[in-house]
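Annotated sample (chain length 227).
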Amino acid sequence: MAKETWKYLQQIPVFADLEEEELKKIADLALTRRYPKNAYIFFEGEPGSGFYFVKSGAIKLFQVLEDGREKILHFVREGEIFAEVVLFDGGPYPATAQTLEDTEVGYIRNEDMEDLLRKHGEIAVKIIKVMSRRLRQAQIHIRDLALKGAYGRLASTLLNLAEEYGEKKGEGVTIVLSLSQQEIANLIGTSRETVARILSEFRRLGAIKVDRQRITIVRPELLKDWF
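Output written by the structure step:
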């Protein structure tokens, strides 16, 4: 049986400290939308009409560079919020959202949430904290692109993904996102061929194992050697 919407909201950091009745009031605002794998939820530049949270599935947020390549900004999974930046400025969506698998999301319109924020100022503060964390992550990613070579960027990215999306499985931590080599390349700003070569080297060293697009970190200390 699917969880009630307020229980998904409870998983989102911005709402985690709210009481059940407060969460249910927010849940009353939410519309449920379902998308198949590889579907687009919104495109970069579209008017930002509301924000979303993931009830099941996974989403990638990306921008398209001038040469047509994707620059992946963030992955979003169950219980996480995305597109919250449009809540305050009413501007366009700054990135495109596409599903990585069959996905169900909750959607809350800006105007409805704004009415709620006027009554619950503490929620606005928590949303700002979430945005600050995302900004910090973006700054770290920009620093990595500028200062680290491809080996260091990929090693750092794998460890960050394992920390955020990892599950302990026997001999290591498995990243529970099925990512293609091209998607990883888009994430660290290099080519698919370079990613394939580096992953092969990391495998040869015994740092990782790869099985059907799932990467398991076996010896994280070997990846840290590339920093």
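Annotation: The mean pLDDT is 87.
Annotation: The CA atoms of residues 177 and 214 lie 7 Å apart.
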